[in-house]
Amino acid sequence: MPTYLSKDKFAELQQELETRRSVTRREIAGRIEAAKELGDLSENFEYHEAKDQQALNETRIVDLEGMIKDAVLVEQKSGGEIGLGSSFVAEAGGTRKAFEIVGSNEADPLAGKISNESPIGQAFMGRGTGDVVEISVPSGVMRYTILEVR
After folding, report:
1. Spatial contact of 131 and 146, defined as CB atoms under 8 Å apart
2. Which residue intervals define the domain Transcription elongation factor GreA/GreB C-terminal in the entry (predicted)?
3. What mean pLDDT is predicted for residues 23-48?
4. Up-side HSE of residue 111: CA atoms within 13 Å toward CB?
5. What is the DSSP letter of 76?
């Protein structure tokens, strides 16, 4: 399954992967060795904590490798209709808000980055300036007017 990423997010994931493979692995290996020197491993909290951290790090490395391998880089779109990579401004109830349609791995609703897979993201996809988008929310229906597609 493709992982839709901006160039910035792709570079961020590559950097995290490199750091985890080199720096983090070495740090954890050092903690494991230091804990081994403390003696009995069966009740050695430091050893077990370091081994847990090692497992978490290795799991994240595998996850990152998968995301990077399956990455589809999304170019930032400008103007026209809203699609993956688009930034736009919409207004609801007199409040303007800037949004960007991103892949699910980059979604951060509080920062206005909405996933193309989310109901809100899907509602905006294919729409353009001047369109009215209605989105069902628990409290009723939100009505957004698209003011600008960047």
Report:
1. yes
2. 81-149
3. 90
4. 8
5. P
Residue 60: partners with Cβ closer than 8 Å, 6 or more residues away: 20
Tokens of 51: 């081994």
pTM attached to this predicted model: 0.73
Burial class (CB in 10 A: 0-12, 13-18, 19+), 82: buried
CA–CA dist 141, 5 (Å, integer): 30
Q: What is the pLDDT of residue 129?
A: 94
Nearest CA-CA partner of 59 in 28, 103, 102: 28
Quick: pLDDT tens for 51-88.
999 999 999 999 999 999 999 998 776 668 999 989 99
Q: Token match 């369109």: residue?
A: 131
* Spans of all domains in the chain: 3-73, 87-149
The CATH number for 3-73, chosen from 1.25.40.10, 1.10.287.180, 3.90.1150.30, 1.10.287.3610, is: 1.10.287.180
